[in-house]
Design brief:
The complex is a heterotrimer of chains A (127), B (1025) and C (220).
Chain A: E1 14-17, E2 22-25, E3 30-34, H1 48-56, E4 64-70, E5 78-84, E6 90-95
Antiparallel strand pairs in A: 1-2, 3-4, 4-5, 5-6
Chain B: H1 4-10, E1 22-31, E2 34-40, H2 44-50, E3 57-58, E4 65-66, E5 79-82, E6 90-94, E7 104-108, H3 119-127, H4 135-141, H5 144-158, E8 171-184, H6 188-198, E9 204-207, H7 216-220, E10 225-226, E11 229-230, H8 231-244, E12 248-251, E13 254-260, E14 264-270, E15 284-298, E16 302-304, E17 317-319, H9 320-330, E18 337-342, H10 346-356, E19 360-366, H11 374-381, E20 386-388, E21 390-396, E22 403-409, E23 416-424, E24 427-431, E25 434-436, H12 439-442, E26 449-451, E27 456-458, E28 466-468, H13 478-499, E29 542-544, E30 549-550, H14 551-559, H15 565-572, H16 585-596, H17 600-603, H18 617-621, H19 638-643, E31 647-651, E32 654-659, H20 667-680, E33 683-686, E34 691-696, H21 700-707, E35 720-726, E36 732-742, E37 745-750, H22 755-769, E38 776-779, E39 784-790, H23 794-801, E40 817-822, E41 825-830, E42 839-845, H24 849-859, E43 866-867, H25 870-879, H26 915-918, E44 929-936, E45 948-949, E46 965-973, E47 978-986, E48 995-999, E49 1005-1011, H27 1021-1024
Parallel strand pairs in B: 1-7, 8-9, 8-15, 9-12, 15-28, 17-24, 18-19, 18-24, 19-20, 33-43
Antiparallel strand pairs in B: 1-2, 3-4, 5-6, 5-7, 10-11, 13-14, 14-15, 16-25, 21-22, 22-23, 26-27, 29-30, 31-32, 33-39, 34-37, 34-38, 35-36, 36-37, 39-42, 40-41, 41-42, 44-47, 44-49, 45-46, 46-47, 48-49
Chain C: H1 3-8, E1 34-35, E2 44-48, E3 52-61, H2 63-74, E4 84-86, E5 95-100, E6 103-109, H3 113-125, E7 130-136, E8 141-147, H4 151-158, E9 173-178, E10 181-189, E11 192-198, H5 202-213, E12 218-219
Parallel strand pairs in C: 2-12
Antiparallel strand pairs in C: 1-12, 2-8, 3-6, 3-7, 4-5, 5-6, 8-11, 9-10, 10-11
Helix pairs in contact in C: 2-3, 4-5
Classes of the chains: A mainly beta (127), B alpha+beta (1025), C alpha+beta (220).
Chain lengths: 127, 1025, 220
């Protein structure tokens, strides 16, 4: 159980929590930014520039985007949301460590220069 | 006292019969202080019109007199202030929407000093274009200072209502709903949709902003038959049936104002606005319903748009539909002699209603050259003068219409042919066709689509499960509305049933009600009636009444290069304000498009945003006001704190005792007393707000090593350790003491404000990056009450209440913890110190917190035990140089900057969070700001927190002056009898002994010596004692 | 099991009930005091349960094996997603509520909390390849019972969760936003729910409910 601070008017999404397996109101959730940013396994072997990219550079997506959300007022689990940043359509949600393919006809976001591309999952390596 | 009879005589424009009003129930009200009378069933607008009130406001820019123009939510002019005084006032009430009640007081808001003779009106007339389009932009741009001069006058003159300064006396709340099918609009199509959906057994919610269902049927008292009975009667039986169905919820007086993502709707129900204040019960005035609909049916109808012509804002100019509504629903004729201007069949309805009420219709000007329809025929049969191929080009009169000019036009309606002729009248009704109410369908960003046949925008496609029926689809015939409603309702229900894999309903479906539509003639696309002069020369042709936007202004905007419709809107203010383009939007777009030589579908429309109509702040806030604005969190000892007269400080949502004044003590005096008691005997602090996290699992130790900067591999059970937590950037994020309960079990504490952040921090790493670590985190912040006894007598005090722990220094050392019993209650006691004194932190389950606290106060009497608050805690810790994260750090401070290198272990095998960040080039450079102590040269001078440091030999004229850093914490220390401060100073750790200067805002320059922040007991003997 | 753990798993219950205070002991929730209008026909009834034993159970691994191990201890097994087992409406028996895929909440009489804690630990430790933790949080939460014909309306004002029968049947439990805090809601009867609220938010929750129930009449 968690100390969520739900808003009460501005939350409008209906989000499927893959752990509770139910659609819930957005006020139960907190957005936690871009998903699939695995912590590098050897931080000390990275240059300042590489490390700076890891901690600071994020996609500013127009269209499909993968985000990490937290079911803060519910089960407390973090999961991934694949949604369109223009229409706000949610294509699907999936658990940490899993991957969801984009629906047919939808393309992965165009990445701004310097930003990292969303990582494909690699083995059991977290989300 | 004026009698009811005398007041009744003032209702000069009330028809002697008819209307859906109760003449047996006269209601007294006042308008601008004058006593007036209306009837139960009236709106304020219908009552004002009944009393012959022509002018209800002054226009925004030109201050022209304005009258009531519509009978509904689209009213741009009759915006009134409701209520007499104080917090009971409501600004910006549309008179057309406000039901009349006994004792209602309203006043006009535009116009200063009065609506009938207006100072700004002169300016508007004389100056002509004192405030032309782009006025604000041009004024702002050159010169900026001019605006200040204009503003006072313009704001006062143009104001739309006065916001009461007193608190609102009424209450509001929110209510959440979920429904399978939501139908917005209870007109004929909405009723059919609700019925068709409900018959399948799914949950249906039907919402309408009027007090009665029926939409246009009710507003116009439509005589057309549905299923063989008059339409109004069909509406009543349909409503009765819906209300009987257990799976249907009907909300009337409820306006759906926002249609948000994923079919989330916000709708405000006016529960008591129709009642006199004395009749209002002690309950919610307005309720915002927040509805999540699986399937949404929008049956939002259409707004009739007026035709734009010269001087079309003179009081007496109304929409044709409004005339029908006032005559039929309210038995009010807003004049005596009517002229109708129309481009479709609706205008005839107004003429016939007027005629049947026994009043004179001088002419119907129909822009269409050839008209063959039942409405036209009926007018001709009634002997009315119908002028086809003609438009009203101009109205005359200033405070009331005195006549119009009617002229023949060419076939495409672009120019006048022949000489306009003057026609006598005092009222003009125009109908320019219907604009579907696409607002809700557009709120999430979907652009509406131009429909050439409908001559209007219709809802665009969206991924959300939405269905449309009725006039919003651009199809206005009753038969189409009914059929479309049944279709939409059935589709919505079956979509829900399919999506939820329910069984299809066995019960009979709902058959489309039968009706026979009159023969209609197509509407002509005519928005601006041509004039003998072009718009820039003709008298003002108003497109948007509320914002005084004229056809000429739109022309000027396009001529000045504004081609994007969003730019035209902002340049002219078209569709601004409470109006949001309800009456003027399409006309404005059409005029702009014509001027740009584009089709309307090319120019597109402006963006529709929530809310559809103004909402009170009360409804938005709901119950989240006063003590419920933000949760207040209390510890289990709150009652004792109140009994001891504590002043409280907000720490996040917690209420923490700040200090405990005795008698008339100031905070300063109380803090000195509390601090002295703690240093010399024993003090008591409620530390329950500290975040506490129970950490269990074989990998708990490994996890701690990754999130803290120091080492945890060897911390033995029974021992505690202070830890610093950093972000990946190497900056200090939180700190606290963690106790080892067993090899696999730890008790972590965090700062009071950081508890939730830290727990999330641990969870996000565990759930996404390190799921292989076998560890569990559980918040136990609320489970443990924590009280710290601190001072040389704390051991003696604890010994009185705790017999099962050996408290001797040999057995219970500094940074040890032990389980035991305190005051008869199971406890965990930690020997840690945030004051530098011998201290014990007693943790007991929170339900015993009050008991143990009271026992401590009682047992402590012999030691003069003194409860202290956060302020004293801050002073005592500063005397020891202990940091407070968030006060002495600001997100740009590494552990090294704090001189806390002892709390960083770079030899740990795992690259802990913060290690790589701290190693960045910028984090290891010289001359970073570092935490140091400061002693002012004059010991009595206390530096202000935030004071900026410069070198002693700084030349203030040699700007920019190099800055050295700033003071983070500063107090007067009783223990040292001098001021102390902590500061972040460039390269400060290597500058102990140097003196630097602090130029203050008041002109003083304070000199201070850099020193170690460990001011008090530098060898740390006391806390180890 | 590590021997060091034994020293830590101490009984957290003092055998003197008079020493304990629930967070709303001051809110006149125990007697017949009333608030608002029409309490004779109050549509909402609100009570704070006496001090209740509450244990957090965290389990990852073979959940059916874990459930089988717990059953002999408590007489009930682990509920599946959003479900509860046992009889939460009764204050005498234990009940288990699902909280998260790896978390459950045990509600039991406070006197039995320690015994249950020990027995559950032992039972789970006997199951191989299972990660588990048990935490006593009895002091951290309070249990409110809300009931009555209008209780549903009070809840609809408080949470955006879909409370309709078809979505929220008897025995279901959900963590959700509630006013500006968050709670766990457990349906215990046709017109009856448990609200499990954090102790420090209990006063806010009480104020909130009192305000929301005002128009229906509140009996406490």
């Amino acid at each position: 159980m968690n100390t969520a601070q739900p808003g009460w008017l501005t939350n409008m999404f209906l989000i499927h929590c893959p752990y509770c397996d139910e659609h819930r109101e957005e006020e139960e959730f907190h957005a936690s930014g871009q998903a699939h940013l695995p912590r590098p396994l050897d931080p000390d072997g990275m240059s300042d520039e590489q490390w700076g990219e890891y901690i600071n550079y994020r996609i500013s997506a127009r269209g499909a985007h993968r985000e990490l959300w937290h079911h803060s007022a519910g089960c407390g689990k973090f999961f991934n949301v694949l949604r369109d940043t223009v229409s706000y359509e949610i294509y699907g949600t999936y658990k940490a460590g899993e991957w969801l393919e984009l629906p047919a006809g939808v393309s992965e976001p165009r990445i701004a220069k310097g930003a990292k591309r969303a990582h494909e999952p690699s083995g059991g390596e977290g989300a | 006292m004026i009698t009811d009879r005398e007041l009744r005589i003032q209702q000069v424009r009330r028809l002697s019969t008819g209307g859906d009003i109760d003449r047996a129930k006269p209601l007294r009200f006042t308008y601008n202080g004058s006593p007036l009378q209306g009837y139960e069933g009236d709106t304020v607008a219908s009552a004002l019109l009944a009393n012959g009130i022509d002018i209800v406001g002054r226009s925004f820019k030109y201050s022209r007199p304005r009258g009531i123009m519509t009978a509904g939510i689209d009213e741009p002019n009759a915006i009134l202030q409701l209520g007499k005084k104080g917090g009971t006032q409501t600004p910006n009430v549309r008179a057309t929407e406000q039901p009349l009640f006994e004792g209602l007081a309203c006043s006009s808001v535009k116009g200063w000093p009065s609506v009938n003779s207006d100072f700004m009106g002169l300016v508007g007339k004389v100056g002509g274009s004192v405030m032309g389009p782009g006025f604000y932009y041009k004024t702002f741009m050159f010169p900026a200072s001019f605006w200040m001069t204009y503003e006072a006058v313009i704001r006062k003159a143009a104001g739309l209502g006065r916001s009461p300064k007193e608190p609102d006396t009424e209450t509001y709340d929110h209510m959440n709903h979920h429904t399978d099918v939501m139908v917005v609009g209870a007109g004929p199509s909405g009723l059919c949709a609700a019925m068709a959906a409900a018959k399948t057994g799914v949950d249906v919610m039907l919402v309408d902003n009027h007090s009665k269902a029926g939409g246009e049927i009710t507003a116009r008292a439509t005589a057309q038959l549905i299923d063989g009975v008059p339409a109004t009667q069909w509406v009543e039986s349909a409503m009765a049936e819906l209300k009987r169905m257990p799976n249907v919820k009907v909300l009337l007086n409820t306006l759906v104002n926002g249609c948000h993502d994923h079919n989330f709707l916000t709708a405000v129900e006016l529960r008591q606005d129709h009642l006199a204040p004395k009749d209002r019960i002690d309950a919610v005035r307005q309720r915002m319903h927040k509805v999540r609909a699986s399937e949404l049916v929008l049956a939002t109808g259409a707004h009739e748009r007026p035709i734009v012509f010269a001087n079309n804002d003179v009081p007496g100019c109304l929409t044709a539909g409004a005339i029908v509504t006032y005559v039929k629903q309210f038995a009010v004729a807003p004049g005596k002699v009517l002229v109708v201007g129309t481009n479709n069949d609706s205008g005839y309805e107004a003429a016939m209603a007027w005629h049947e009420a026994g009043l004179k219709v001088t002419a119907i000007a129909d822009s269409r050259q050839n008209v063959s329809s039942d409405a036209h025929q009926a007018a001709v049969d009634a002997g009315l003068t119908v002028l086809t191929g003609s438009v009203v080009t101009e109205a005359t009169g200033s405070k009331r219409v005195s006549g119009v000019y009617i002229a023949r036009i060419n076939a495409d309606g672009s120019k006048v042919e022949g000489e306009p002729r003057s026609v006598e009248c005092d009222t003009v009704a125009t109908s320019g066709g219907y604009s579907p109410v696409v607002h809700l369908s557009s709120h999430t960003g979907t652009r509406p689509v131009w429909d050439e046949q409908a001559i209007g925008f219709v809802p665009g496609k969206t991924f959300e499960a939405r269905h449309f029926c009725g006039s919003v689809t651009g199809r206005h015939a009753l038969s189409e509305c009914l059929a479309g409603g049944v279709d939409a309702g059935a589709k919505a229900a079956s979509a829900f049933i399919a999506a939820n894999q329910m069984d299809a309903p066995s019960s009979a479906s709902f058959a489309v009600p039968t009706t026979t539509d009159p023969k209609v003639a197509a509407t002509q696309a005519l928005y601006l009636a041509p004039h003998t002069h072009k718009p820039s020369r003709a008298p003002k042709q108003f497109v948007d009444m509320q914002n005084d936007v004229t056809a000429a202004a739109i022309h000027m905007a396009t001529q000045e290069g504004f081609e994007n419709i969003e730019h035209v809107k902002r340049y002219t203010a078209l569709g601004f304000g409470t109006d949001q383009g309800k009456t003027g939007n399409i006309n404005g777009l059409a005029i702009a498009a014509q001027q740009l030589g584009k089709a309307i579908e090319e120019t597109g429309t402006t963006t529709f945003r929530p809310n559809y109509a103004p909402v009170s702040f009360g409804a938005v806030s709901g119950a989240h006001v006063g003590p419920l604005f933000d949760p207040k969190r209390f510890t289990a000892m709150q009652q004792s704190h109140l009994d001891n007269g504590a002043e409280f400080e907000d720490v996040g949502q917690w209420k923490r005792p700040w200090y405990f004044p005795v008698g008339n003590e100031t905070m300063d005096e109380a803090v000195r007393r509390e601090g002295r008691a703690t240093r010399t005997s024993v003090g008591l602090l409620d530390a329950s707000t500290l975040g506490k996290i129970d950490i269990q699992g074989p990998d708990a130790r490994e996890f701690l090593g990754r999130v803290y900067t120091n080492a945890w591999a060897k911390l033995a059970p029974g021992r505690c350790r202070y830890g610093l937590m950093c972000g990946e950037d190497g900056m200090v994020m939180d700190d606290g003491v963690t106790a080892c309960l067993s090899d696999h079990h730890f008790h972590m504490t965090t700062t009071s404000g950081g508890a939730a952040t830290v727990l999330n921090w641990l969870e996000i790493y565990h759930q996404t990056d390190w799921p292989e670590l076998d560890v569990f985190f559980t918040s136990v912040t609320d489970h443990w009450s924590t009280m710290t006894i601190s001072g040389p007598n704390s051991r003696k005090l604890l010994a009185k209440l705790c017999q099962d722990i050996d408290l001797s220094a040999e057995s219970f050392g500094f940074m040890d913890w032990k389980p035991g019993t305190v005051a008869g209650v199971p406890a965990r006691v930690f020997r840690i110190s945030f004051t530098g004194e011998l201290s014990f932190e007693i943790n007991v389950p929170a339900h015993y917190g009050a008991h143990v606290w009271d026992c401590l106060l009682e047992a402590g009497k012999e030691f003069d035990l003194t409860p202290y608050g956060t302020e004293t805690m801050h002073v005592l810790r500063a005397e020891k140089g202990f940091i407070i994260v968030g006060q002495d750090t600001d997100g740009s401070v590494t552990p090294m900057d704090l001189d806390h290198g002892w709390a960083v272990n770079n030899n740990k095998p795992f690259s802990f969070i913060g290690k790589r960040g701290m190693a960045r080039e910028d984090c290891v450079r010289d001359n970073r700001k570092q935490l140091v102590g400061l002693k002012t040269k004059k010991p009595e001078v206390v530096l202000p927190e935030g004071a900026q440091a410069v070198e002693l030999d700084t030349d203030p004229d040699d700007t920019p002056v190099p800055m050295l850093g700033h003071v983070t914490s500063s107090y007067y220390s009783m223990a040292l009898d001098r001021s102390i401060a902590m500061a972040l100073i460039k390269g400060g750790i290597d500058r102990y002994g140097d003196t630097i200067a602090f130029p203050l805002l008041d002109g003083r320059i304070v000199h201070a010596e850099i020193c170690s922040p460990n001011f008090y007991d530098p060898n740390n003997d006391a806390q180890k004692g | 099991m590590n021997t060091n753990e034994v020293t830590v798993v101490a009984n957290q219950y003092a055998n003197d009930a008079s020493l304990a205070q629930t967070p709303l002991h001051h809110a006149q929730l125990d007697g017949n005091s009333s608030s608002g209008t029409a309490t004779q026909n109050a549509g909402v009834r609100l009570t704070e349960r006496e001090l209740t034993g509450q244990l957090v159970l965290r389990i990852r691994g073979d959940l059916s094996a874990a459930s089988k191990a717990i059953e002999p201890v408590l007489g009930i097994g682990l509920p599946s997603t959003l479900k509860s087992t046992g009889n939460p409406a009764s204050s005498s028996g234990p009940s288990l509520a699902w909280v998260s895929p790896d978390e459950w909440r045990l509600l039991c009489p406070i006197e039995q909390a320690f015994e249950n804690e020990q027995n559950i630990r032992n039972a789970l430790s006997a199951v191989g390849e299972l990660s588990h933790a048990v935490v006593n949080v009895s002091g951290g939460y309070t249990l409110l019972d809300i009931s009555g014909a209008d209780a549903i309306n009070v809840l609809k004002k408080s949470t955006g969760y879909d409370l309709r029968d078809k979505n929220f049947p008897l025995g279901k439990v959900v963590g959700t936003a509630f006013g500006k805090t968050s709670v766990h809601l457990l349906r215990t009867g046709e017109e009856k729910w448990h609200i499990i609220a954090r102790r420090s938010f209990a006063d806010y929750t009480w104020l909130w409910l009192q305000n929301a129930a005002r128009e229906y009449g509140l009996k406490i």
